[in-house]
Amino acid sequence: MSCSADPLVLDFVEWVAREPRAYAEVISTWKTSCPRLTIWEDAADRGYVARETVAGVGLVIAVTEGGERLLRANGR
After folding, report:
1. According to the model, what pLDDT value does residue 4 have?
2. Pairing label, strands 21-22, 58-63
3. Check: CATH 3.40.50.2000 for 7-74?
């Protein structure tokens, strides 16, 4: 991923940090038709967010410790 997309990864991690997001909400909100903008996949690959199954809710996307460090390091 190019450096120009890093602010979008940061925006995504910050959005998820507000509250764990349902997988369907992440797909709906962050979908793109551009194969070069795989923001949430890039965040997951870098360990900033992770998929978790929550009883009664289903699959959610939540920020990891690495994602929290990323946000702190960037003043968010």
Report:
1. 38
2. antiparallel
3. no
Closest C-alpha among 17, 21, 15 to residue 54: 21
- Under a CB-based contact definition with an 8 Å cutoff, are residues 21 and 52 in contact? no
Instruction: Break the chain into its structural domains and give their ranges.
Output: 7-74
Please tell me the pTM assigned to this model. 0.82
Q: How many CB atoms lie within 10 A of CB 61?
A: 22
pLDDT in tens, 21-66: 999 999 888 877 777 778 888 999 999 999 999 898 899 999 999 9
Q: Nearest 5°: phi and psi at 34?
A: -95, 115
Contact at 8 Å (CB) between 16 and 61?
yes
CA 57 to chain centre: 18
Phi-psi group of 23: left, alpha or beta (phi > 0 → left; psi -120 to 50 → alpha; rest → beta): alpha
Report residue 22 as tokens: 């349902």
